TrEMBL record:
Top-level taxon of origin: Eukaryota
PANTHER family per record: ENDOSOME_LYSOSOME-ASSOCIATED APOPTOSIS AND AUTOPHAGY REGULATOR 1, PROTEIN CBG13728
Assigned protein family: Belongs to the ELAPOR family.
Membrane topology: Single-pass type I membrane protein
One Pfam assignment: ELAPOR1_C
Subcellular localization: Cell membrane
Protein name according to UniProt: MRH domain-containing protein
GO cellular component: extracellular exosome; late endosome; lysosome; plasma membrane; trans-Golgi network
Residue ranges of the region described as Disordered: 955-983
Keywords: Cell membrane, Disulfide bond, Glycoprotein, Membrane, Signal, Transmembrane, Transmembrane helix
GO biological process, one term: autophagosome assembly
Amino acid sequence: MQPGSMHLSPLLLWLLYAQASADLPLCKESDYHYEYTECDVFGSRWRVAVPNKADICTGLPDPVHGTQCAFSCSEGEFLDMQSQRCKKCAVGTYSLGTGIAFDEWDSLPSGFSNQGVNPNDEDIFTNCSSSTWTPKGDYISSNTDECTATLFYAVNLKKPGIVSFEYVYPDEGIYFEFFVQNDQCQSTDSASRWMKISETKWSKYLAELKTGNNVLYWRTTGYVVAGSEVKPVLLRNIGISGVSYTSECFQCKPGTYSEKPGSARCTPCPADTYSNKGATVCLHCDPDKYSGRPVLEHANPRPACTVSDYFYTHTPCDSKGKTQLMYKWIQPKICSETVNGAVKLPASGEKQTCPPCNPGFFFSNSSTCEPCDQGSYSNGTACIKCPVGTEPVLAFEYKWWNTMPKNMRSYTLRQWLSHSENTTGWEVAGEYVYTTPGDQDVDNQMLTLKVPGYRLPQSVSKASENSELSRISFVFETTCSANCTFSFLAGYNQWLNDVVEWWRGSQAKQSYSFLIQKNTTHSFTWSFQRTGKNSEGRKHSGDMARIYSINIANVIGGVASQCRRCAVNPAGFSSACVPCPPGHYMVNGTGVCKSCPPNTIIRADQSVGGDACIPCGPNTERNEAYTACRSDCSLDVLTTEGERMHYDFSALSNITSFQSGPRFTNKGLRYFHHFNIGLCGEKGRMATCVDNVTESGNEVKGYVCQSTAVPSGIRSQSLVSTQPVLIGDALIGVTTDTTLSGISSPDWLFPSATGLRDVIFYFGSSESTLACKEGRSATVRLRCNPTVTAKDLITLPSNCSEGTCDGCTFHFLWESQYACPRCTTNNYRAIVSACIQGIQRTTYVWQQPLQCFGGESLPPPAVSACVSLDFWLRFGVSTGTIAAVLLMSISCYFWKKTRKLQYKYSKLVMNSSGKECDLPTADSCAIMEGEDAEDDVMYLSKKPFFSKIRAYSRERTSDGFDSVPLKSSSSHQRRVDEDTDDD
C-alpha cells in the first residue's frame, strides 16, 4: 500500500455509502413508524422515525418535539403519531386509551418474562428451569410441581392506574400470590397479595398501581407433601390502565363486535350469531345453521333433531298434588325440526299424583315438600314427634326426585373451564335423577351435594371399634355407547376435592358406599363425561348416567325417618331427648334426671351402661355448663417436707405460638410445624389454628393445635398456615405426676438438673384418626427457670423433633420465671453483721439456688443498737474493783466488831470468882453491857493490820478458846495474876 492511502480510506468508504444510499428509494409512510424518546428532566421528549426494517429506504423524517410526558389519551382513543393528537378508534376496534390488554395467549406476549426457580436453594438436584407458565390459547397455565414459577411484566405508568385479571385457583396444593414492586423493590401489602381459592367460575382481581415503574408478579409454588397431583392456576384477560397512550386500536376478536367509534371494549355476539375479526356487527345464522360455542367467525349447519336433542322432566307438584311429565329442548337449541327425518318435541304427559316426599319431609299446604321440625320424623307423608327418651336419627335420604333438593346443584363444566347457570347438567325424573343430553360430548355434567357437618348419634359410642362418623351410599347406573366416565368426588367444594371412585363405560344398576371418618368432608360431587376426546359436537348425547337414591347418615341439620332410644343423656346434647337441668343426666333414656356429684362434668358421648358423670382431674374445676373442666392458672403443691408451694401461671395464660425446626418434603421444600397453646383456656382464650390459604378458611380451636407453616422465603413476610390439626381440646388435669389418665410424660424427655419438680398440664382430644384411635393428647411441662424472662421459651424433645414420638402424644417444655412457685419467707435468710460502734446491721438474701419468683419480697436491711466487747470489759473491771473495796470494808467492820466482843468477854472473865467452873460475880465496877469504856485505856502496841490478824489467829488456847488479854486498874489484880503464875 502506498503512503497516504490510509488517508483516502475513510473518504472512499463515505463515497461508497453515499452511492449505496443513492441507490435506495425514499421512505414511504409504510416503511417506518414513530416512537418517542425517553423523557428528560424537564418532562420533554422527541418524536423520531424508526424504520420497520434496516436498509430498505432512505430519507426518514427529521425528529420533532413530541408531546409532554404527562400527555395521555382516554378510553376508546389512540394517539396518532403523525399529528400527535388523540383520535377515536374506528368501528370494529377498541382501545383502553391509557391502558393495555392481553387476552390472547397463543404465545407469551411481548414484555412478559417467565422464570422457574427452586424455592429451596439447598437442593441442587432439582431442576426447575422448565417449570414455568405455559400459554394455552385463551389463557396461561402455571406449573404443578414443587418449583416456583414466576410470570412478571414491567410497565411505566404516567398516572395512577389499575391492573385487572381473571384467574382460576382450584387447588390448595399450590400457593398463588400476586404482588407489585416499584423502583425500590418495595412490594404491595401482604394482606392483599394472596389469592383466594376459586370455584368453577373465573374470579376477577383488581389492584391499584402507582405512578412510575411497576413490575407485576404472578407467582406459584407447588406444595406436594403427600406426592399427589395438583391442579394448575389459570390466568387470562390481563388489563393495565395508567399508561400514557396506545398508538393503535385493537381489532375485535371473532365472536365479538364494536358498532360505535371510540369503543373501549368489544361486545360478545348473542346466540345464533357470529362475527369475524374486527366485526362491526354480528351476523345472524341462516335458519339451517347455528353458531358454535363459544361464538366464532362462522356458522355450522343445523342437524336434524333427534331424541337426543330433548330431555324429559317432571313439573313441581301443584296445589292439588299433581305433576306431569314434560319435554324440553336442550339449550341452546342447535337442531332443526324442519329437516327431513327430524323428530318433533313430544307433548307433555297427563297429570299424575305426586310421589311422596323423601323421608323426613312432609307435604305443606302448597304441596311442596318441607323438612320436619327438629325432634320429629316422617316416612314422607306426615311428621311425628319422637317419644320421650328417644332421639331422631338425622340423615339425608333421597329416593324420590320430583324436584331438585335445595342443598344440591346441577351445572355443566365446559371444556374451557367455565359453566353456565342456565345449562342443566342433571334433571329430575321422578324415580331417579339423570344427565341430560349435553351441548358438547366433552363437557362434564356435575351434580353437587353440600353437607354442613356430621355428628354421631347419642346412642353410638365413639370408642367402639365398629363405629363410624358417617357413610354415604348411592345407587346408580350408566348407559354409554362411547368410552364415558362416571366419577364420584369428595372434598370441600367443587374444586377442592379428590376422586374417590370412577367407572368407565356402561355400568349395571349397583350400589356404592363411602365411609366418612373425619368431620372435614363438606361436599360430594358426581361427574359424568361422555368422552374425553377433544372433538366438537354431540355425537353421544344419548349416553347418560342415572342416580336412583342417595343416603348420607349422621348429618348435622339433616332430617329423620326414625327415632332411637337415647343413651345416658347429658343436658342440652340433643333437643329430641327430654332435657335435664344443668348438672343432671337422663337415666337410660327413661326421662328420669339424676344429679352428678360435685366437680364432675356431663359426658358428651355416653354409651349404654357408661358413666354419665366424669370427675375433673387434679387441680381443675368444672365450668358452669357442666361440660368441661378448667384451670384458674393457679396451683398449690405440698412438698415431701410438708412445705406448701403456690404457683400462679396467669402470666402464661395468653395464646402462645412457636415453631418446630425446619422440615422438608420429598423434593426438598422447607416447611415448619406451627403450634398454638392456650394453657388455661380461661375467659374464652382458646388456641386457634387456621387455613389462611384456601377460601374454605378451615380452622380448629382448643387448648393445643398444630398447623403447617410455609417459610417466609416462599410467601414474603406473611405467615402462611395450612392443614390445621387439633391436638388437645380438653384439660385432663394439672399435677407434678408424670402419668395421668393413661397419658405419660416421662422425665427422660426433658432432663432436669434441679430438684424442683415440673408442673405438667395434661390435654386430650376426642377426635380420633386411623393412627390415633384413642385421639391425640399433649403434655406441657412448666419448668421453673428464674433466668428466663421471656414468656414463650417452649422447646420440643431432642429425640422427637416434631414434638411427638408416636404421632399421637405431643410433649412440650415451657421454661419461664413465671413457672416458679411464689416466694415465701422460707426462700430467704438473714445475715447479721458484727457490732460496730454500737450499731448492728441485718441483711436478707435469697437461698441459692433460687427456685421461686414473685410472692414475698426480700425485707429491707434492718439496723439495731448493740453493746460492744470493750464496753463489757470496762464494765467488768469497774464492777470487780467496786466489789473488792466493798468486801474489804465489810471485813474491817466485822473485825472491829469482833474485837469489841472479845473485850467484853475478857472483862466478864476477870470479874468472875477464882473458883473453877464458877462464873464471875458481878462487879459493880465492871462495864455493863451497853457501856462504853471511855476511861479505860488499852495499851496495845501499834502493829500493821495483817500482823494483827496473825496475832489474833495465834491467841487461841489449846482448848479452842481465845485467850484475850484484859487490863486491870487495881494492883491486887496484878498480884493475883503473879501468884497464879508462880504456882
